[in-house]
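Entry for the shared binder. Reason: the reviewer on the internal report wants the predicted structure included alongside the sequence.
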Amino acid sequence: MSIDASAAAGPKDLRARLAPVLPPDGTRPRRPRAGFTLVLLHHAGGSAASFAPFAHRFPADWDVLAVDLPGRMMATGERGCRSTGEAVDWLAPRLLPLLDGPYAVFGHSMGALVAYELSRRLSGQGAPPVWVGLSGAPAPGHRPGHDRRDLWPRERLVGFMRELGGTPEEVLAFPDVVDLMVRVLRGDLAVVDTYREHPGPPLACPVTVFTGADDPVATPAMTAPWSGRTTGATTACAWPGGHFYLFDHPDGVAARITRDVAGATGRPVRSAGVEAALSARTAGAGRLLVAE
């Protein structure tokens, strides 16, 4: 879980300290045209700020946009999305004008479900991604049980946060902060637990499925069926750790995303030093458990 320092929902330039890229007049101040755009979608209870550790780990000639869905912690009075359909309806028209070149989408947990449906929506509008990364989420129809976690009482949700990790224990010592976190998490879990795959064709691009080896909510049996959701190639990789494995391995995960995007586009990584970092980070210290 992350406390979002910016209340405005929407796509945000991760490298520019998560500053909104769409001010009220609708213009988009930005540096010269990037060669590529990566869109990052956060987990349930998270925010664009969750991806701060990745800000400078991607090639310098990429635009990296981290999305805040409505209703984050500091956005008081803002109604959050309550389904993937609402999230895609809200996000697609805001994101599409920013995608004036090749792009990829990566989502973690709830963000993976939104990434999948968003990518299908944008594909249907003539703007398909070149690659999609789905992390820490069961494939549609493969989440065990039908428990509505958004209906759990407060203390059970706090226990769930402790079980998954990703929330410092010292943060949970502040009841007012916990109340805010539970509010956001409860709304986001409604998105996850009511999700049903939207009708329509599968993706047509390469997909990489990322998992934590010890993740109790996204086991290999739950994530393997993602391979049937694209006509492109599907690759699976597992990392040491639980549900929030990616924040323990930002170098390796960013390198893997960069490598897979380069493979999907057939274009070399142009940023100085990144090609060498790819092999070093991906192979180093036994970080990557499985890659196929």
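Summary line for the report: The chain is about 30% helix and 15% strand.
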